[in-house]
Write a structure and sequence with these properties.
The protein is of the alpha/beta class. 39% of the residues lie in helices and 19% in strands. It is built from six helices and six strands; from the N terminus they run H-E-H-E-H-E-H-E-H-E-E-H. A six-stranded mixed beta sheet has the order 2-1-3-4-5-6, sandwiched between helices. Helix 1 packs across helix 2. The longest helix is centred in the N-terminal third of the chain and has 15 residues. The chain starts with a helix and ends in an 18-residue tail after the last helix.
C-alpha cells in the first residue's frame, strides 16, 4: 500500500518536491481507509517524503484547526477523505473566515464518485485554477476492505469524465447509452 501511495503522491501531487501537510479525514477505526492511508503516509514520510501527517479523522474541529494553524507552513495541503465530508469541511472553513486560497489545498477522495460539476464547485471554493480541474487538484482513489488501494483517477480519466458529462462526446458511440457516466 505504501508503494502505491508513493507512486500516487509523487506523480500526481509532486509530493517529493513540494512539502505537504497530509490531513487524513477518514474514520480511523472501524473502516480500513483511514488507517491504511495514515500508515502508508507515515511510512513514506519516515522514508524521506517531505511533509507531516495529521490524523484528524472525522473531527471537523481538528481538521479546521490544522488548516488554520498548520497548513501555512507547507507548500501544499492534501485533504484526504470522503467527498461529501470534505465539501462540508471546506464550507465550514469558509464560514469561519479561513482563507483557503492561500493554503494551496489539494484533495484525495475515496469511497464515492461525484459529478464533475461538484468537483468544479469544490475547487472554486479553494481557489484552484481552472486547469486543476483535470490535473493536480485532486483524484479519486479506488480500493476495497480486503485489498486496500487498487487504482485511481488520472488527468486523462478526469478529462474523459468532463467530456462525457458536458455532452461534447456522443456517449452512445462508445457504449454508454444513458446519462450515467462511470465513476
Amino acid at each position: 500500500t505504501a508503494l502505491l501511495h508513493k507512486i500516487f503522491f509523487k506523480n500526481l501531487y509532486s509530493a517529493y518536491d513540494k512539502e505537504a501537510l497530509f490531513i487524513v479525514c477518514f474514520h480511523l477505526s472501524a473502516h480500513i481507509a483511514g488507517v491504511i492511508t495514515a500508515n502508508a503516509i507515515k511510512d513514506l514520510i519516515d522514508g524521506g517524503m517531505p511533509g507531516s501527517l495529521v490524523t484528524a479523522g472525522l473531527s471537523k474541529e481538528d481538521i479546521l484547526n490544522s488548516l488554520n494553524k498548520l497548513s501555512g507552513f507547507y507548500k501544499q495541503t492534501i485533504l484526504i477523505g470522503y467527498p461529501p465530508f470534505l465539501m462540508d469541511v471546506i464550507n465550514d472553513a469558509q464560514s469561519r473566515g479561513i482563507n483557503l486560497v492561500e493554503k494551496n489545498i489539494k484533495f484525495m477522495f475515496s469511497a464515492e464518485s461525484f459529478p464533475e460539476k461538484w468537483r468544479e464547485k469544490l475547487y472554486h471554493k479553494v481557489g484552484l485554477p481552472r486547469r486543476s480541474f483535470s490535473e493536480g487538484g485532486g483524484y479519486n482513489v479506488y480500493g476495497s476492505a480486503d485489498q486496500g488501494f487498487l487504482g485511481h483517477e488520472t488527468p486523462f480519466t478526469i478529462r474523459l469524465r468532463q467530456l462525457f458529462q458536458s455532452d461534447e462526446v456522443d456517449k452512445s458511440k462508445i457504449g454508454i447509452g444513458n446519462n450515467h457516466v462511470p465513476g
